[in-house]
Amino acid sequence: MKPGIHPPYGPVVFRDRAGGFAFLTRSTMTGDKTVEWEDGRTYPVVDVEISSASHPFYTGQARVLDTAGRVERFERRYGAAGAGASGPAGSAGRREVR
User: Fold this and answer.
1) Sign of CA dihedral 2, 4, 6, 10
2) Closest CA to 25 of 57, 53, 3, 37
3) What is the C-alpha radius of gyration for the chain, rounded to an integer number of angstroms?
4) pLDDT of 45
5) 10-16 vs 42-48, strand pairing mode
6) N or C: which end of the chain has fewer CB within 10 A?
7) What is the pLDDT at residue 70?
8) 60-89 pLDDT tens trace
9) Alpha carbons 67 and 37: distance in angstroms, whole number
10) Residue 78, CA distances (Å) to 53, 68, 69, 90, 93 in order
């Protein structure tokens, strides 16, 4: 590697404030705040908005969307036969090749 152009790479604590979860890893990110870790040392801390501890996909609290209702609303709005038609009836998706 070329010296002097890369940011420092060292231990950093990433803390998820919503989930009450933190983990120690290595990164080029740094924070203004520090925190004392379980090993008794002080590390820079980066607060994150979401992590695997608070994301609905990982916690099993993901919402299931009502896709059937959306399809019915689309069909009411545009008609069942009009789903994909881009011209006169019967010519949906067809092109004349000469």
Assistant:
1) positive
2) 37
3) 26
4) 93
5) parallel
6) C
7) 77
8) 665 656 666 777 788 888 887 665 555 555
9) 46
10) 42, 15, 14, 16, 17
